[in-house]
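Researcher: Next entry in the queue.
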Amino acid sequence: MYIPVFLIAASLVLSAVLIGAPRMTRRSARTAWVAGAGVALAGIAVIAIQILRWKWRRPGDSGGYSLPALRPVAVRGLAGIRLLVVDDDPDWRSVARRLLEDDHAQVVTAKSAREAFEVFQRERPDVIVSDIGMPEEDGYSFIRRVRQLPASMGGRTPALALTAFTTPNDRMRALDAGFEMHVAKPVEPRELLSAVAKLSAGYRAGSE
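Model: Structure for this entry, 208 residues:
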């Protein structure tokens, strides 16, 4: 309601100035321009306030405009997905576990390739997230051992190589060893979650 009034008032003042400009003294014209500009600025301020009120008004409030109520969206995330995180760095294992569990995944961890293979056979995760550069046995060797298992024992479990080895040759070596995806460290949380979600899509498609 207030928005059109201020716009009309500003337009009338500015029109009067333009029509009467030839008959005005310089001082009078300046005063009229200042008055018109003031009305216009006041109108802009009211418009901004009305927009904010419209944007933030809760649905159902009386008076003015209101945004339509938004239907709640169910965010499934990684709910129901069992993950094995393999890394010799305890800090990274902790960070990765918390990040993935916050997205509703079920996470088990291992600090070495040897332990990871034992955990894998016991837990039968849906997705593997493994480092490459680990002492004694690296991630390449670990995923080759997994791929030697029959499908019925998890030999085709999708796996993500998450590593600081980031050259094109490193990527090809990871894929050749048996990883489906290669993601470089350091990794953004959203990128990691997206990569795991893509790998888990095949599991969900086959289980639903």
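Model: Residues 45-49, 51-75 have pLDDT under 50 and may be disordered.
Researcher: Noted, moving on.
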